[in-house]
Write a structure and sequence with these properties.
InterPro entries: CHP03960_rSAM, Elp3/MiaA/NifB-like_rSAM, Radical_SAM_N2, rSAM, rSAM_horseshoe, rSAM_sf
Strand order of the largest sheet: 2-1-3-4-5-6
Distance between the termini: 45 Å
Radius of gyration: 24 Å
GO molecular function: catalytic activity; iron-sulfur cluster binding
Pfam families: Radical_SAM (PF04055), Radical_SAM_N2 (PF19864)
Structural class: alpha/beta
CATH topology of the largest domain: pyruvate-formate lyase- activating enzyme
Strand content: 5-15%
Length: about 650
């Protein structure tokens, strides 16, 4: 198995960022391959700058390389300049660790975090010298796998991916390794055979073993065609994060990447119940990492990497028990000499006090991003983001009073039942926050960032008909006009056409496979990048396939309609999601079940307990804000996400 380095090195001088492809990071492994070992090539279908920090890929990279029967290396989508050079010189996709050709591996496994990378996945498979369509692959070809949040509706990729993994990957990758290892030891006798064996692994979905039935344009269902394939695929859930203190050696890049800092996951899952948020729904139940383990991972990680910033990551970080102590100890650690910044993504606004504002960035102050998501209290009840204007203003006031000068507010538009008054509430909140900033600094600024809402599988909004492109553009125009009259407020928005195509992929079925392939074959790669996104390619491909954008994207679904992902399970009861959808339309908010009675969503069922985390009070100590009274009675804890870095997807 020979390295391609001698052939790659001469052409790297012709590309924009050669450092993307050379490896050599602190924390990189150079696994020793052997015919008896299963060789994984872990792929992120976007450029190195975006993919390198991905925690999921780094965790699996370490776990697999700790096994005696496996090796794992990494690859990322080559940017257009390198791809041109690879195709010109007849070179395949390669690993960045040992620079081995992709065909030298047994499994090419993708981490999919967004639907707009689907054409990149096809491009990488083709560069790996593997037939793009699964039905054309022979026993000796790569097995193509995929996992990540964007695989909870895998049907649009069913023609191209051999197996999908639903849920947490820490345990299941070892089980897949054992299945593939036995197949490899037997000489890879039958591709159909190993796919049937993989279907027997809990959490693994093999689309070739299922068939979808239609009546005209209506999907009737997706059912197994062989006895080895279960009728329903259950997601995998790691019950105790303490057993998985990864990554132990986070990769430190040689070139600039996004989220370039130490990242330590403090807990997984979220029960805040934001109805638009797929991540919060599919990662339930909440599982906390022990505080002592968090402190150890932070201290050891900072010393090993040399970073001066650590992000304590989760979907709602301030809900972590003992968050204040972990932050204080990290900042006060004498080894850090007061130079370490702690970033708290998804921080509750009611926990963002003046004291915490002063504590978390004693070393230096960067911008803060608050995510109220909707412009009015009515809309926040609809989406179950139960924060009041006073909560937001209190958090912004705390930030500006402690020296921050830049605040970003993130919103969605096109949410269910949204009116023009709700839309204009976005800029009103921005204006009011800017006025608060001016009290503390004449240079204070507020950026209002708006994204088009995309309904996602396994959320209460999966039945909602997404806004049309015309309606999205009309709402952006309303905001632009209003923002012109708002001193100190800068408005930014995401490409509305990209939101439409994301919606197409999000809730599509197998009939979209030819559409994805059509777009790819006509040059449609890096569709999540604004400079490469091509709406026309998608519309033309849909027309050639005889499919309707309106039917997939803009149409409301009915209660008993078969959804493309109904044969998969994210651990949530479908009737719970339907009732939550009805509650949304009735503007009824639900408190977090971590300190209220169980709603029987289904997420904790397999653990033999009513709640994985239950408390009579909010998990994070200190004062807790309350929203307005809800129709189910009583005041409830309120929350607000904080994002401390910009989204990876390019916006407008």
């Amino acid at each position: 198995m020979d390295s391609l380095w001698t052939q790659l090195e001469p052409i790297l001088s012709r590309v924009e960022k050669p450092a993307r492809y050379i490896g050599c990071e602190d924390g990189m492994q150079r696994p020793i391959h052997h015919p008896s070992k299963v060789a994984w090539l872990l792929a992120y279908p976007d450029i190195y700058d975006i993919g390198l920090p991905n925690q999921g890929l780094q965790i699996l990279y370490e776990i697999l390389n700790e096994r005696p029967d496996a090796v794992a290396e990494r690859t990322y989508a080559p940017w257009v300049d390198l791809e041109a050079q690879l195709r010109l010189h007849g070179l395949p996709l390669f690993s960045v660790d040992n620079h081995l050709p992709a065909p030298a591996f047994d499994i090419l496994a993708f981490n999919l975090s967004s639907e707009l990378v689907y054409t990149n996945l096809l491009n990488c498979i083709d560069l790996a010298r593997t037939p793009v369509r699964a039905e054309h692959r022979a026993a000796g070809d790569l097995l193509i796998g995929a996992g990540g949040h964007a695989t909870y509706n895998p049907e649009p990729l069913a023609d191209f991916v051999d197996f999908f993994v639903l849920g947490d990957g820490e345990e299941v990758v070892s089980e897949i390794t054992e299945v593939v290892g036995a197949w490899k030891a037997a000489g890879k006798p039958s591709r159909e055979g190993v796919l049937r064996d993989l279907a027997g692994v809990t959490g693994v979905y093999v689309p070739a073993l299922y068939e979808s039935r239609y009546s005209g344009a209506v999907l009737l269902g997706t059912t197994p065609r062989v006895p080895e394939a279960p009728e329903r695929i259950e997601k995998r859930t790691v019950a105790d994060l303490a057993d998985w203190p990864y990554p132990k050696q986070q990769l430190v890049p040689l070139t600039e990447v996004v989220h370039d800092r130490l990242n330590v996951e403090v807990f997984r899952g979220c029960t805040r119940g934001c109805r638009f948020c797929q991540a919060g729904m599919i990662t339930r139940p909440v599982r906390e990492r022990p505080a002592d383990q968090v402190r150890t991972m932070v201290q050891q990680g900072l010393r090993r990497t040399g970073y001066d910033e650590v992000a304590l990551t989760s979907l709602s970080t301030a809900d972590f028990s003992g968050i204040e102590q972990v932050v204080a100890q990290t900042v006060a650690d004498p080894i850090n000499r007061g130079q370490v910044t702690v970033a708290l993504p998804s921080l509750r606004v009611d926990a963002f006090t003046v004291g915490l504002a002063a504590e978390i960035q004693k070393a230096r102050r960067t911008g803060l991003t608050f995510a109220p998501e909707a412009g009015t209290w009515r809309m926040r009840q609809v989406i179950n983001k139960l924060i009041s204007e006073d909560d937001l203003y209190g958090a912004v006031e705390s930030a500006f009073s402690q020296g921050w000068r830049r605040v970003k507010l993130y919103f969605l538009t096109g949410l269910p039942t949204e009116t023009d008054a709700d839309t204009l509430g976005i800029t009103e909140l921005g204006r009011n926050c800017a006025e608060l900033g001016k009290r503390h600094s004449s240079g204070a600024s507020v950026t209002v960032s708006v994204g088009g809402f995309v309904p996602k599988p396994f959320t209460p909004f999966q039945w909602f008909g997404q806004n049309t492109l015309t309606e999205f553009d009309r709402k952006i125009a309303l905001l632009r006009e209003d923002a012109r009259r708002s001193k100190g407020v800068q408005l930014k928005w995401h490409e509305t056409k990209a939101s439409i195509i994301e919606g197409l992929m999000s809730r599509g079925d197998r009939r979209l496979g030819p559409v994805i392939e059509d777009v790819w074959r006509n040059g449609g790669i890096f569709q999540e990048w604004s400079e490469h996104f091509n709406y026309g390619l998608w519309i033309d491909a849909l027309e050639r396939a005889g499919l309707s954008l309106e039917d997939y994207v803009n149409r409301h679904r009915t209660e008993h309609e078969t959804l493309p992902w109904d044969h998969l399970s994210a651990g949530l009861h479908k009737d719970f999601l339907w009732q939550d959808w009805r509650d949304a339309l009735a503007e009824v908010g639900l408190p977090d079940c971590r300190w209220t009675p169980c709603y029987d969503c289904g997420a904790c069922t397999g653990y033999g307990i009513e709640h994985v985390v239950a408390s009579a009070v909010a998990p994070a100590g200190g004062s807790q804000g309350t929203g307005q009274d809800l129709s189910r009675g009583g005041a409830v804890p309120v929350s607000l996400g904080i994002r401390t870095s910009k989204p990876a997807v390019a916006g407008v």
